[in-house]
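Budget justification aside, the reviewers requested a transparent look at the raw inputs and outputs of the sequence design task funded under Objective 1. We therefore reproduce one unedited record. The lines immediately below are the structure tokens for a 216-residue chain.
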């Protein structure tokens, strides 16, 4: 898929995610690999309304996260999180959302460094999961403005858990990162995760689990 088509698919992601309330305001960022050697990633520029993206609202960055020669726009501050997912997991598209349910769960389970999801039919929407009896672990990392440190933390998590396949992760009080073998797969993973997050959070509410939210 050429760069123009990649941008069109990412624009469609923005429209869908905005309509679902997963990418409101100027939150979220989306990317896709346009070239593997040398690595070039097409990623949303900073500060754009994701419901109104057009194909000009992207910048191409290299493996160090910096814009390639000839690019003048600024990419998302979280660009290196996309680069690490591409480099370590051979992802071809990385998507990031800020949903209500994901944000709540990231806060509730942060002391456990994550939570398990098992037994749901929708898990089969994640690449390689054969049936609903499967389980996955969703790691949670503390929010920080030090993106290189957060990228290193994610990379260290992967290195320390080689037998635990990672389909996505949450940043506390922030949002979800997931990826796929192409834009369509990454988009499907967003939809699966967001469905499961809402189911889990609503189930917790129905069983009267105390809210973790504390006013500052």
């Amino acid at each position: 898929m050429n760069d123009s088509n990649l941008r069109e698919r990412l624009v469609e992601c923005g429209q869908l995610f905005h309509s679902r309330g997963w990418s409101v305001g100027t939150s979220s960022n989306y990317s896709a690999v346009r070239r593997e050697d040398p690595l070039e990633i097409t990623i949303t520029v900073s500060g754009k309304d994701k419901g109104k993206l057009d194909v000009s609202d992207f910048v191409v960055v290299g493996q160090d996260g910096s814009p390639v020669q000839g690019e003048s726009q600024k990419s998302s501050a979280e660009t290196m999180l996309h680069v690490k997912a591409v480099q370590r997991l051979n992802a071809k598209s990385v998507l990031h959302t800020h949903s209500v349910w994901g944000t709540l769960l990231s806060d509730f389970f942060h002391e456990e460094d994550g939570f398990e999801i098992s037994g749901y039919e929708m898990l089969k929407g994640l690449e390689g999961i054969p049936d609903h009896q499967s389980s996955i672990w969703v790691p949670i990392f503390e929010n920080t403005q030090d993106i290189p440190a957060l990228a290193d933390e994610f990379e260290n998590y992967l290195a320390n858990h080689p037998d635990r396949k990672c389909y996505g992760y949450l940043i506390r009080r922030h949002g979800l990162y997931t990826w796929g073998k192409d834009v369509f797969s990454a988009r499907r993973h967003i939809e699966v995760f967001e469905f499961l997050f809402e189911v889990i959070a609503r189930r917790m509410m129905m069983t009267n689990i105390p809210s973790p939210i504390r006013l500052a």
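The first strand starts at residue 29 and ends at 36. Residues 65 and 79 are 6 Å apart (CA to CA). Computational costs for records of this kind are itemized in the attached budget.
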